[in-house]
């Protein structure tokens, strides 16, 4: 029996993909880029991902036949930060099959997107959703779904207990953001999970990064920037030492007060804070954590705001690095009397049904023919296919080799 395609809407993407897309279309529309799919834990796959090649090819054919609908674009255009000319661009946009290729190397599935960045950057989220769903379709059983519901109910009860506990009350409330699209078990499971969360925790979970589900479920779409946005500026001809400042400045000019959460770990928190001076600290609402010890990171952020003479209570720290509900509640207890917090939980909500989740990414690796890199604050999360450039980047920013 044939199955429905994994994706039925081009809005089935994370909001930060659209916001980065708009900014780069306006400021650097001629940039050429290369993105590469990587599975970081191939041992977790129930079978070699190379077996999915034919199915992935068929799903990409379907993806490239989709276009944004008039209703979707009308809804998107009502978001204050989305510009009319970007909506016009999306009105005629279609993914180009020639810009993405699929092959296998032994048991590895290799997917690469290469071409004009404004035509290939959107492939990332659909590719991850496609590979995940095709993999987990082979493991999908009624018992797996029931286990997922049981685990979700336990998380909801834990959050409800915390909300009702006077001892857990803090100056700023606990806010949960659903970030699970990229590594979800399936599209229908993400919808069921998110409908359940929104119904049972209406004061806690009101936002999702999934733009399609935000539209169809009446939730707030949430997201600003990802690593690829800042990494792009490593290949745009600005002085390498200044690429973070150039990226932040363009963001400020594009959004002029909206979408004010900056990502800190492309080079690492210390190197980021060295560039995040009073000017940027006043213009951005807060910071997002995505690698390294979250408590150490948060304390560094608060110390930085204090050194700049800014009241941390007017800022927000968003935590989004592989969080569990337990970790989120612990971090809220630690920080939420001093600063507004937010917790983006992804895989632990969208793919906690028993089978081991895949740790898959599709990352930017080259811009205008030049390598780009992410160093991060977690050893092992560095990403670059050019060891020489990675070493040079570390040297420019004074990052130790072991970081």
Can you offer a commentary on this structure?
The protein folds into two domains: 165 residues, nicotinate phosphoribosyltransferase, CATH 3.20.140; 168 residues, nicotinate phosphoribosyltransferase, CATH 3.20.140.10. The chain has 17 helices and twelve strands. A seven-stranded parallel beta sheet has the order 6-5-4-10-9-8-7. A five-stranded antiparallel beta sheet has the order 2-3-1-11-12. The model has no long low-confidence stretch (mean pLDDT 96). With 403 residues, the chain is of the alpha/beta class. The longest helix is centred in the middle third of the chain and has 23 residues. A hairpin with a 2-residue loop joins strand 11 and strand 12. Catalyzes the synthesis of beta-nicotinate D-ribonucleotide from nicotinate and 5-phospho-D-ribose 1-phosphate at the expense of ATP. It catalyses: 5-phospho-alpha-D-ribose 1-diphosphate + nicotinate + ATP + H2O = nicotinate beta-D-ribonucleotide + ADP + phosphate + diphosphate. Belongs to the NAPRTase family.
Short description:
The protein is an alpha/beta fold. It has helices at 15-27, 53-63, 70-77, 84-92, 117-120, 124-137, 142-164, 187-200, 211-217, 227-232, 243-255, 269-275, 278-283, 294-307, 325-335, 347-350, 387-397, and strands at 32-39, 100-105, 108-116, 176-178, 205-208, 220-221, 261-263, 286-289, 316-319, 340-345, 360-367, 370-371. The chain folds into two domains: 15-139 and 358-397, nicotinate phosphoribosyltransferase (Alpha-Beta Barrel), CATH 3.20.140; 148-224 and 260-350, nicotinate phosphoribosyltransferase.
């Amino acid at each position: 029996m044939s199955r429905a395609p994994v994706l039925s809407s081009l809005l089935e993407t994370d909001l930060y993909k659209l916001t980065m897309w708009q900014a780069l279309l306006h400021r650097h529309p001629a940039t050429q880029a290369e993105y590469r799919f990587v599975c970081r834990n191939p041992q977790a796959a129930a079978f070699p991902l190379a077996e999915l090649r034919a199915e992935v090819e068929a799903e990409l054919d379907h993806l490239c036949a989709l276009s944004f609908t008039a209703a979707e674009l009308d809804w998107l255009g009502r978001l204050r930060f989305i510009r009319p000319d970007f909506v016009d661009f999306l009105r005629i946009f279609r993914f180009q099959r020639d810009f993405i290729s699929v092959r296998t190397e032994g048991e590895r599935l290799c997917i690469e997107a290469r071409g004009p960045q404004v035509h290939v950057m959107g492939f990332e989220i659909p590719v991850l959703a496609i590979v995940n769903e095709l993999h987990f379709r082979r493991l999908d059983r009624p018992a797996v779904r029931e286990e997922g519901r049981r685990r979700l109910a336990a998380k909801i009860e834990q959050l409800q207990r915390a909300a009702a506990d006077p001892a857990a009350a803090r100056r700023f409330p606990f806010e949960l953001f659903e970030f699970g699209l990229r590594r979800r078990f399936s599209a229908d499971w993400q919808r069921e999970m998110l409908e359940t969360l929104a119904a049972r925790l209406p004061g806690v979970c009101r936002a999702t990064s999934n733009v399609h589900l935000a539209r169809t479920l009446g939730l707030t779409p949430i997201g600003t920037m990802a690593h690829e946005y800042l990494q792009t500026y490593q290949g745009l001809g600005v002085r390498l030492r200044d690429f973070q400042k150039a990226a932040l400045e363009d963001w400020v000019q594009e959004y002029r007060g909206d979408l004010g959460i900056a990502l800190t770990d492309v080079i690492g928190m210390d190197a980021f804070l060295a560039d995040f001076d009073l000017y940027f600290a006043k213009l951005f609402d807060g910071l997002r954590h995505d690698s390294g010890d979250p408590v150490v990171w948060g304390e560094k952020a608060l110390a930085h705001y204090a050194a700049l003479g800014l009241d941390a209570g007017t800022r927000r720290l968003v935590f989004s690095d592989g969080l569990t509900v337990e970790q989120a509640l612990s971090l809220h207890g630690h920080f939420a009397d001093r600063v507004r917090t937010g917790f983006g939980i992804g895989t632990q909500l969208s793919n906690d049904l028993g089978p081991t989740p895949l740790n898959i990414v599709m990352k930017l690796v080259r811009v205008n023919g030049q390598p780009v890199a992410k160093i991060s604050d977690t050893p092992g999360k560095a990403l670059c296919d050019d060891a020489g450039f990675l070493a040079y980047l570390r040297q420019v920013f004074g990052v130790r080799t072991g970081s």
